[in-house]
Amino acid sequence: MLQDTNSQLLGVVLLVRHGDRQGFYQDPQTYTATATQITPLGNQQEFMLGSYLRSLYLNQSSPLYIAGMSTGVFNPSQVYIQADLGGEDGVIYDSCVSLTQGLWPATLSNNITLANGSTITAPLGGYQYVPIESVDPNLSVSLEGFTSCNTFNTHTSTFYNSSTFQEMAAQSASFLDSLPPYLNGRSVQLQNMWNIYDFMNVNNIHNATFSHALPPAYLAQAQTLANWHEYNVFSDRNIGGVGNIAGLTLLPSILNGFADIANSTNPVKLSITAIAYKPFISLFNMTGVASANPSLAGIVDYAAAVALELRQPSGGGEPVIRFNFKNGSDATFVTYNFLNRTGDVPLSAFIDAMAPVAVNTTAAWCNVCANTRDRGCAALALATDQGEAAAQPKISPAGAGVLGAGLTLAVVALMGITLAFLGLLTIGRFGRRRSRHPGAFELKDGESI
Hints:
Blueprint: E1 8-17, H1 40-57, E2 79-84, H2 91-103, E3 111-113, E4 119-121, H3 123-126, E5 133-135, H4 150-160, H5 163-177, H6 193-206, H7 208-213, H8 218-233, H9 245-248, H10 251-262, E6 270-275, H11 278-287, H12 289-292, E7 305-312, E8 320-326, E9 334-336, E10 345-346, H13 347-354, H14 362-368, H15 377-391, H16 397-422
Parallel strand pairs: 1-6, 2-5, 2-6
Antiparallel strand pairs: 1-7, 3-4, 7-8, 8-9, 8-10
Helix pairs in contact: 1-2, 6-8, 15-16
């Protein structure tokens, strides 16, 4: 389907990477991360991105204005925002705060009139405190599906042991062997390539002595190798393969965002998810954007953003999706073809491609990742074991026939209550979501999201 220049913008699902931060280390095998902090540069990058997005979507004079969206005081009923609270120790959440400052800047209209007739404006000239749902990876796998995922770790090890990896290690050996003077004792093994590049990139930005000493082409060479390394780790030949786990667990958030926007009775028209670089890689792989645009097969820049615009064609029919991407400091969004199609893609086609592989629940993640201990999996396994044990009849065969069915139903109900209390049981096609304005629309098979 070609792009309809007269289509109406219904709403946008935004995916945003954090801004510049201090040094950071990830285990090359498990991607367990150390703590770090956002920098003023990172705050500014996100603020500028927010301002740009405001000029597009919250500006009534813009052709991309989302009809009905508040352009002044933040309206919480129209927006859903969530941010990863793990991984980089608050950097993503802090970035999201700066993003919202650009989207909804301070305004004197942010005030209240008291009973005595006096008008009080919010501090800092009407600063707007925009609510952001923090997603703790210990409580939800949605934004960090790769951590503690045993099958993903196996996928990574398989890549490191592959002939492709060994060939690249041989080809890059002379370059890697020249890096010790610039790495402060860090390993120069190809497995450590992300950490090599990140150390060089952070110091090139913040350390003048390092920046002047680093040979001109070295950072670009390191970035090329890091892009190759990370793309192979966080992608898979099969759309539902575990290499894409960072994207598979993100899909329910995207699908829920479209559900909200497509539902005309739901006021939510803007869904924002703040994440690290890894889900971007998986999403670009799963949608075919990376294969069609090899320059995007790698690490997106700080403050990069994907804008999935949901549009109503001028000729009627079902809504369509337009895939836009802005890589960090790029001036504007660029529109890309995806799902091996040209132009806008029907919403149903996106759902048909993505819904079957989406990892919607903790239980599904535990199964995909072969994990029975971490991130809620132990409680799930315990509840299952206790339920099976309780369901075993301990009375005579005659009595068992009478009580068996009732006992089983009672155990199942008890398990459901226990898991729901623990936040581990998700009801619904695309998972539980703490939006105050849930939306739904019908799929081809009659199921709703």
